[in-house]
Write the structure tokens for this entry.
Amino acid sequence: MDIHSINFQMPSLQSIQMEATRVVQDVEKSQDFESFYQNALGMWNETNQLQKEAEQMSLEFAAGRLDNFHAVTIAQTKASIALEYTVLIRNQILDAYREIMRMQL
């Protein structure tokens, strides 16, 4: 299997950062903080679910109940990318919060 084809399918860090910037800009436009908070919780819950699924598949594979290594690898990659994305969003939100706190009224 060609390694380049696998790397080509994974989103780049730059595209993840652009998405994180877009989310932060949407937050800045939004006037309803509660809806933003609910959306963020949904994203974090989805990331948590992907992490749990990847861990469960790894345990199933290690126990010999699952023989599809590719599915395990794909689940782990999805969980890894989702976690990376979530951390980037969190960092963008914290940066925005710090910037707001530095503003002088």
Helices lie at 3-9, 13-29, 33-63, 69-102. Residues 14-22+32-102 form one domain. The chain is about 85% helix and 0% strand. The two ends are 59 Å apart (CA to CA).
